[in-house]
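<amino_acid_chain>
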Amino acid sequence: MILLDTDIVIDLLRKYPPAISWLNTLDEERIILPGFVLMELIQGTRNNVEQKKIEKELKSYDAIWPSSLWDWSKSKTYNILYKAPMFSDPEGINNETQGSHEKRD
């Protein structure tokens, strides 16, 4: 399963060659759009014609909406981000960088 960000979807909708090439390398991966990405794309349309076009093109993708029922702690992204020192320290400072912002002589 691959979640796409708004920037990537925009590149795909514009048929940007590097984005299309990347998409073609995914084989049988399931592509999912987070609900907020769908909302951003709809919000970015200038008129009803553009909105209908975007809606038509996005029908081929599945959508997912985050919910309180989702156990984020079991997701790969959560484990990568929130086990990193800069996120696991509640003040954003780990032992290696503590004091690095102090004035030096």
